[in-house]
Amino acid sequence: MKTVQIKDITVGGGKGLFVLAGPCVIEDYDRTLAIGKRAKEICERLGVPYIFKASFDKANRSSFNSFRGPGLEEGLKMLASIKKELNVPVVSDIHSIEQIEPAAEVLDILQIPAFLCRQTDLVYGAAKTGKCINVKKGQFMAPKDMENVLNKMKETGNENLMLTERGFSFGYNNLVVDMRSFPIMRSFDYPVIFDATHSVQLPGGAGTKSSGNREFVPNLARAAVASGVDGLFFEVHDNPEEALSDGPNMLYLDQFEDVLRDLVAIDKIVKG
Predict the structure, then answer these.
(1) CA 113 to chain centre
(2) What rounded mean pLDDT belongs to the chain?
(3) How far apart are CA 123 and CA 125, in angstroms?
(4) Cα dihedral angle (217, 191, 3, 83), rounded to 10 degrees?
(5) Residue-wise pLDDT tens digits, 164-217
(6) Any idea where the domains of the chain sit in the sequence?
């Protein structure tokens, strides 16, 4: 298993868990920063390397009228400030080749959304920056097919690559997680992350927005860690009920530490 360098954090290679966590989208600066501070404190107490996540633009919302975030320019300014304030790496989604260059100036990880994981120009262009790239497996993709995505990026010579499992479409408005996905994708020799909160999403399940079943987040996360996953991705919020995006599948910050403590314990048993 290769290791991947993210700022001053080394992940993969059979090391312990690392965590990407934060709100779904930047709602406002102060609240987003406060969520990041609490998530960082929790990870520090448990000895888990922490990477802050938040989207500057949710470009794939169900409805035209749904909240999308502050946008590229303002959102990157906020992420740069949060990165400096928390002194941690930051990750966010990019959606087009035009966003690659400005995003790479701020982000430590460029994340490719699941719906865009087959877009050759996007994944190749992102990898060409030399930044760490995290590609989410499409809800329509077999785990084995993600090797083709890795190979597209490896053409650039960039080896700082990661894959994320975020559930597979199972009928309408539903996702399931096939635990075979983790050993299959880890066999490609790059770190694999489990997105525990998007995996309980019910896409489009609330008509003009998605719904979700956050009560299953701990169960799926424990199973993924027991399967040997390298990292975990959580969307967390102080009050998901009033979140402007993905509230039904986000984890309450008040629950985050207890959930993560169990996962660290399982990981130590699995990895020795």
Answers:
(1) 9
(2) 95
(3) 6
(4) -50
(5) 999 999 999 999 999 999 999 999 999 999 999 999 998 887 777 788 899 999
(6) 3-271
Q: What are the φ/ψ torsions at residue 38 (nearest 5 degrees)?
A: -65, -40
Give residue-wise pLDDT tens across range 203-262: 887 777 788 899 999 999 999 999 999 999 999 999 999 988 888 899 999 999 999 999
Please say whether the dihedral angle defined by the alpha carbons of residues 237, 57, 206 and 173, taken in this order, is positive or negative: negative
Given a contact cutoff of 8 angstroms between Cβ atoms, the answer to whether 167 and 176 are in contact is: yes
Residue 267 pLDDT exceeds 80:
yes
| Residue 110 DSSP class | E
Which residue carries 């035209």 as its tokens?
64
Question: What element of type H or E holds 74?
Answer: helix 72-86
Closest-CA residue to 32 (of 115, 98, 114, 92): 92
Pairing type for strands 231-237 and 192-195 reads: parallel
Locus of tokens 């909160």: 197
For residue 71, give the 3-state DSSP assignment: coil
Instruction: Give the separation between CA 120 and CA 13, rounded to whole angstroms.
Output: 27
CB atoms within 10 A of CB 22: 31
Given this model, what pLDDT does residue 55 score?
A: 96
According to CATH, the topology of domain 3-271 is TIM Barrel (3.20.20)
In sequence order, the 6+-apart residues with CB closer than 8 A to the CB of 164 are 134, 135, 136, 137, 192, 193, 194, 195, 233
In angstroms, rounded to a whole number, what is the distance separating the alpha carbons of residues 243 and 233? 18
